[in-house]
Structure to design on (289 residues):
């Protein structure tokens, strides 16, 4: 009797613990099956390019980016190359000088255009690259050129100097307004005419095309290229991925997306199939800004 009581007590405690467990995140496959971190890591090792789609202010996404980068560096047979939306192509020289100990951290951070959350969210990745002699590529278009397209379309890029044209994808910029992500932006432009015009998705396409261009320019067969970007740049294998596929169809590309849900127990229908792996985070998770 005493033994049975002990067993019942233990089972009750286990059940209570499970019910009250509050996971910080859960990883799902594209079809909504729960996947553990180790299995995801194993699959990503075989990729040519991994896109880690983040929510820019999501602390879990940034932590997992760092952990995944460390683990791929340790476990992959391929040489890692890192790249990020958060660095613009005309800052590559400063980034290289810092990574190669030619300028100080203070000098680098004062001269490069850093995102406001660099210190907490991207600096650990840059320092990891520096400490382990890993190339880090500034892939994004300088924002001034995206602004030019947003105001006047792709045609305005033709007026720029040859020097300026080094910092974005070669003209003409490939653009298909029927690609899902651009189509949604066009729909938004119809509803928000005061803020968004028909050039808005073209500016996005310039960013995507440029990131694809610099990824391919710095990718080699023996590499595993990890790219950090907002989820919208790689969700549904559109955005940057679409542009890469126009040039290199045979590359093995795997994508990660980050989503927020009220509960992370199951993946909602709307979040299925947006990426090869979906990191589901509670809506109440602490944000970095």
């Amino acid at each position: 009797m005493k033994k049975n009581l002990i067993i019942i007590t233990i089972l009750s405690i286990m059940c209570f613990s499970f019910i009250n467990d509050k996971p910080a995140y859960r990883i799902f496959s594209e079809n909504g099956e729960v996947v553990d971190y180790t299995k995801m890591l194993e699959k990503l090792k075989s990729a040519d390019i991994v896109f880690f789609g983040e929510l820019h202010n999501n602390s879990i996404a940034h932590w997992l980016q760092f952990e995944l980068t460390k683990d791929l560096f340790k476990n992959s047979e391929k040489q890692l190359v890192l790249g990020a939306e958060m660095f613009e192509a005309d800052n590559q020289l400063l980034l290289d000088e810092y990574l190669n100990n030619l300028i100080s951290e203070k000098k680098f951070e004062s001269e490069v255009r850093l995102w406001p959350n660099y210190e907490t969210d991207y600096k650990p990745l840059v320092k990891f690259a520096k400490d382990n002699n890993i190339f880090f590529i500034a892939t994004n278009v300088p924002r001034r050129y995206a602004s030019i397209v947003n105001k006047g379309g792709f045609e305005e890029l033709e007026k720029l100097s040859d020097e300026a044209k080094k910092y974005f994808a070669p003209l003409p910029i490939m653009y298909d307004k029927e690609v899902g992500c651009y189509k949604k932006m066009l729909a938004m432009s119809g509803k928000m005419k005061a803020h968004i015009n028909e050039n808005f998705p073209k500016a996005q396409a310039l960013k995507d095309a440029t990131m694809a261009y610099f990824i391919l320019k710095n990718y080699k067969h023996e590499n595993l290229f990890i790219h950090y970007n907002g989820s919208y740049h790689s969700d549904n294998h559109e955005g940057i991925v679409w542009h890469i596929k126009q040039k290199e169809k045979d590359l093995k590309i795997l994508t990660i997306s980050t989503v927020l849900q009220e509960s992370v127990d199951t993946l909602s229908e709307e979040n299925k199939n947006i990426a090869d792996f979906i990191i589901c985070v509670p809506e109440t998770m602490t944000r970095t800004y």
About this structure: The two ends are 56 Å apart (CA to CA). The beta strands are 26-29, 49-54, 79-88, 135-140, 223-230, 253-261, 277-282. The first helix runs from residue 2 to 19.
